[in-house]
Amino acid sequence: MPSTIRRIRFAEARGVEGLADETADSPRARRDPLLGLWAARRLGMPPERVAAYCRAVMEADHDGPGDADALRELAADLRAAGRPGAEGVLREALVAAQRRASGETRHHD
C-alpha cells in the first residue's frame, strides 16, 4: 500500500472517527463527512487536512435546502484541483455515501 494511502487511512481513523460519533444519529449528517472523504481522496488531500475538509463539506450542506449546495462546493473544489467531476459522478458518490450512512446510523432520516 502506498504511504500516501496509508497516511490518509490513518487520518481517517483519527480525524473522521470523531465525526462518526457526532453524526451517529442521522444518516444525512453522517453522509456529508463520507462524501467529503470521497472528495478528499480524489483531491489527493494531505491526511492532516481530511477531517477539516469533511467538516467543511458538512457546513456547506447547511448553506441551503437540498444537496445542491454541497455538490456545488465539491464540484468547485474538484475543478480547482484540475479534477473536474461530472455532476453524475458527484451524484453517484452522494447516493453511495447516503446508502453507507443509512447502514451506519442508529436512526433513519
Largest sheet: none
How many helices in DSSP terms?
A: 5
Give the DSSP E fraction (strand runs of 2 or more residues): under 5%
> What kind of assembly state do the chains in view correspond to?
single chain
Q: Which class of secondary structure composition applies to the elements?
A: mainly alpha
User: Which geometry do the CA atoms define?
Assistant: globular
Low-confidence parts, pLDDT < 50 over ≥5 residues?
1-8
Distance between the termini: 36 Å
Radius of gyration: 13 Å
How much helical structure, as a percent, in the residues?
Answer: over 70%
Secondary structure: number of strands: 0
**SSE series:** HHHHH
Mean pLDDT rating: 75
Total domain units: 1
